[in-house]
Every structure is written in structure tokens, then in C-alpha cells.
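Next up, a specimen:

>
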Amino acid sequence: MGLSFRGLTQYPTIKRGTLHQYKNAIRVVLNYAYKLGYLKQLPVFKDEYDTKKGVSSRPWFNSAEYSKLHNSIFAHAKYLEKRDKRQFSHAMELYDFVLFGTSTGMRVGEMRNCKVSDVKIVTEKLTNKEILVISNIDGKRGKGSCQSYYGAVAPFRRILERRGITDPSKCDEKLFLIHHRVMFNEILKKKNLKVTKSKPPLKRDFVSLRSTYICFRLLNGVPIYEIANNCRTSVAVIQEHYAKPLGGVLMRNINRTNIEGWDY
């Protein structure tokens, strides 16, 4: 028994990833029915997509866009400070969420699952600067850990101060209490940052924070293997979705010359 799935033919505007989620939901129901004996045989899904899956780059914020983004969130928070204390707190949590995401490269789900006790401030031996070490990261590839960039320390300290947490090592509260997606998207739209200027244009969201971290590290010459290891992903994924779209910007040694008389 086979089940043909012509979703892209019937609904041409639907995302391939959305269809994949729908199919998985149907599979769960059918598997449960089979387990209970309501079905004697499980159908086999056959994908009949009319379009090929293309490799898409992950939208990120360049230096100027990122500066505009976090300055806009902070300005919004300051505007609310004397008008609405609750909304001010939400805006500051969003501000810290953005800085934390672009300084750790953690996935959105990983940050939402992160507990205060999972985060530790340590001093980097090489630079004598403070960084964060995040452990017990619960993500799509299981448990892991990572080291942050220096910019993650201040947001973490603000969170502790704002919530009166004196011993973070014993605090099992979530690091971020609310997912401020609506506020984030409103600021992106207001500041013309929601859609990239690339062709085709891509929509930015919270996932762009991880993309920004990876692209910034690549542009600063960090070895791609170290980035992949710290972000709990593969070198191949970074090469295909992050390094490739950056193109020649990353090739700093392309014009290195070791042979005399080459210049002409």
C-alpha cells in the first residue's frame, strides 16, 4: 500500500519544510493506529516533488545592520522604562537574548531550554578576558557545550541582576523566561531589517542570530572546524550555508605571493 504526497503540486506556495512536518505528523498518527491494531499495514509515503530542493543561505546581520538592530532594541527599552515597567523588562530581556544569541551561536531552541545554572563565567587564559561556558545544551543533536564570545558576559550579568539571582550555580530557572518574537519582528520591520537586500530577498528571524555569530567568526578568521565544533554542527553545513554565500570576502590569502618577479 502506497500513499502519494503531491503537496507541492496542489499547494505550490507551501514550503517544502512545512510539508515535511505535515508528513511526520501523519506518520505519528498512523504508527499509533498500527500499534493499537486499527491498521493491518502501514502506508509508504512517496514524495513526488516537482521542484528540486535548493541550497539556501542563512540570512544574517552584517556589522552595520547588527549595530542598528541592537541599538534600536535598546532605544525601545529606554522609551518604555518610565512608561511601562513590565514592557521595559520584556524589551531588556529581548535585548539580552539578541546579544546572547549572536555571541554564542546557540540555536533558538537551545537558548530557550538553557537554565541559569548551565552558564558559568570563566576567565579566558589567552586573553585574560571573561567569557561564558555553557554546558548541558539541549538541542537537535543531543547534549553539548560551547564557549561564548566576550559579548555574552554582560547580558548574562544583567539577567542575574534584573532577577535578583545571587547564586546562579544553584538556579534551575530558565535563562530566558519569555520568547519575544512579536516585539523582535516589529522592530525588524520598523527598521527595515526584516528582509535582506540579497537576491532573492530572505526573511530574517531569531535564527539569524546564530547565522550572525557564525558569519562574524568566519570573517574574523576563526578556523571553520572550531566554529562547527562550538556550534554543534558540521563543517559541511557551514561551508554550504554560511561560508559559500560570503564568497570571496573570506579569501584573505588569495593574493599572497611567495615567488619573486610575479608582480607585473
In short: The longest strand covers residues 130-139. Residues 224 and 235 are 7 Å apart (CA to CA). The chain has two domains: 2-47, 63-248.
